[in-house]
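Write out the 3D structure for:
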Amino acid sequence: MPRLKDGFKTVINIGGTNIFEMEVQPPGLEGGDAIETTTMRNVSRRTKAARQLIEMTNGSLTVAYDPASYSSLKSQINNNQELTVTFPDLSTLQFWGYLKNFIPNPLVEGEMPTAECEIVGTLSDNDCVEQDWVYTAAP
């Protein structure tokens, strides 16, 4: 089974933003804490059960940017839309979500301006219909 050998070049399409990915942490998957099922009828063990629903964890990016990006970023914050992560092998992960924040790092002489961004997978379209993520294998 093939696997990625290098994280370069992973990008995330967030609407019309003009940001340039330097580091990408794609969203993950989370099942949630176990459900406690122990009762007074248990004999010697505490018991638990797995939850039924899965959630998508937040993803994050470190990006380079131009101050002119503020205009396009303003319209993307909290804008629920289809986001696409494109992995180095050109496979994709598409899901409904939004850009939660854009937080510039300190500007330092001799260093490129960077910012931290966070994306949230809502897994729900704008009509409040549950939408699964879609992984498409590399061509």
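Residues 11-33+43-136 form a domain with the Elongation Factor Tu (Ef-tu); domain 3 fold (CATH 2.40.30).
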